[in-house]
Write a structure and sequence with these properties.
It comes from Rhodophyticola porphyridii. The chain has 390 residues and is α/β, with parallel strands linked by helices. Helix 2 packs across helix 3 and helix 4 packs across helix 5. The chain contains twelve helices and 15 strands. Strand 5 and strand 6 form a beta hairpin.
Amino acid sequence: MSLPLLPPGSNAERSRAYNRGLVLGHVRRAGASGRAEIARASGLSTQAVSNIIGELVAEGWLYEAGRRTGGRGLPAVTYAIDGAAGTAFGIELRPNAVLCALIDLDGRALYTDRVAVSRADPGHVVQLVSQLLDRALSNSRTKVARVLGAGVVMPGPFGKTGLSGFLTELPGWEGLDAQAMFAEALDMAVTVENDANAAAMAERVSGVAAGLSSYAFLYFGTGIGLGLVSGGTIFRGAFGNAGEIGHVPAPFEGGLRPLEEIASRMALTTALRRAGEAAETVTDLDRLFEQRHPAMMAWIEGARPALSHAVHIVENLYDPEAVIMGGALPARLLQHLTETTPLPSVSVSNRADRNRPRLLAGTAGRMTATHGAAALVINQTLTPSLGLAT
């Protein structure tokens, strides 16, 4: 498989941190790699790569994975990322629950937890998250390496906007500096992001988007959001609110309604409640899908054209490698929606030379945004960024 060249590094003009990121970024994308291969992909000299690899091995980020035979001369030593070299803590805030995950560099969950809350009050939640971190470090299934930082995700939009006041928002957090609050409580670097963006990053670290650099993620949370990844990093927009697709009008019963009023988990549970079914968990939804409950099937029939409309917009605006659907819905239901949602023919993504489906079901699981919160930290560590240069 040929990999696209990463943005070139420089032996003198780029910072040491950026060049280290180029090496880590290539090994992350390509897997175990030799010095010459990394040098070709990064634009760095072989000597510079050798020096950086020496540092990264000494610090525990890389390890000698083996030797590659088949070429001329001595077999090339290959290097891979040591998944146990670091961990990241992820927190997802919902109106009725706080979820957390501690994951390693390979995206493996070392600890997960979910605590129901009657109201996501900022003071109570910050204290609870600090307790959850202590619990995660104490009860992890393996010895915990250095904690690189924490990611906190919550529903958008951020700031006062024309979309403020919807049921899918987190009340009481408007105007607060969540990043500063959590950084002080946890005593570590903290990144704050919306849930759809975090879920998109989880799929890159440990899901179906591994190996993709530009894709879109339709996230089923309480509402429905869109995470956009371009060049391996999240596209946030000017104020961090890019991807608020849940409020975009979509076709429904001969008219138009906001997408999240048609196709979100909130819309699904509302329809089931009206039919006398209290489906509060993913397990409940999975059971009702297996039973082909009439209210479930009616929701699917209404959601499919609305999701098709959303995919059409996303493909023609952003030209992604793929659109992925995932989040807090049963895996079987996500797969069914992926397989049965009609794909528009008038789309830039409708090409004969495609090497993967246009629409994919996410595989990072139902806690994808929680894992994504931690994955944000790992992505910042392992992806080269000019923001690292000083």
